[in-house]
Design a protein that fits this description.
The chain is mainly α. Helices cover about 70% and strands about 5% of the residues.
Length: about 220
């Protein structure tokens, strides 16, 4: 891994974990100290993450971790609904028994972590679950567009916490999605995925508006 890639990835991890907060102003000097690097690779990392939508450059004012408001979040999830539905439809046609078995294993481990209240770990496995479905859809361009939004979504979950009542719904959604994929039912897979992503959107928007008195914070953070 090059120094530029290392700094870019460490910044993504810090944004996702909340160590670099959404909306926080950052300077090249501070980041250079933080990551033990010179200004040049830090500047290039900022340019890269600006292209990914994680950093907002403000003329004359420097850089800021992207601020996510209600409209941005709604638009982000509406885009994901369309892309993930398309990939799930393709995945149902193309998936193998081995891929279904791997998907099932990931989901079982995710539920085990939820039972242990390791919500940060469960969130990472949730990402793996969906990323595998995206790969099964054999559309790397669409999968890449979705992957770019994961850091912001994980950052939002870390910021607002995880609603305790959400996990049972996620388990049910995942179970039925695996069933649809295993049956090679493209229509069902697309419908279930679109509904699952839409429910996630409404859950996060509700917590953003309420400033989240009803959430359970992660037992421990995992980058």
């Amino acid at each position: 891994m090059t120094l530029l890639s290392d700094i870019s990835e460490r910044m993504r991890i810090d944004i996702a974990s909340g160590r670099l907060a959404l909306g926080e102003r950052v300077t090249i000097d501070d980041l250079a100290v933080r990551y033990g690097a010179s200004h040049m690779p830090v500047r290039e990392a900022l340019r890269r993450l600006t292209g990914e939508g994680l950093i907002a450059m403000e003329p004359g004012r420097g850089a800021r971790i992207r601020h996510v408001d209600r409209d941005f979040m709604a638009n982000l999830f509406d885009t994901r609904v369309a892309l993930e539905g398309t990939l799930s439809r393709a995945a149902a046609r193309l998936c193998t028994d081995a891929e279904i078995a791997e998907l099932t294993t990931i989901e079982e481990e995710r539920k085990r972590l939820v039972e242990k209240r390791d919500f940060a770990g469960a969130l990472l496995l949730n990402r793996q679950f969906h990323a595998l479905i995206h790969r099964m859809g054999h559309n790397p361009q669409a999968a890449e567009l979705i992957e770019r939004t994961w850091v912001l979504i994980v950052a939002l979950w870390h910021h607002y916490g995880y609603g305790q009542d959400r996990f049972a719904g996620v388990a049910s959604d995942h179970l039925n999605l695996v069933r649809a994929l295993k049956a090679h039912d493209s229509d069902a897979a697309a419908i279930l995925t679109s509904a699952h992503v839409t429910k996630t959107k409404f859950d996060l928007l509700e917590q953003m508006e309420a400033e989240t008195p009803r959430v359970v914070k992660p037992a421990r953070s995992r980058a």
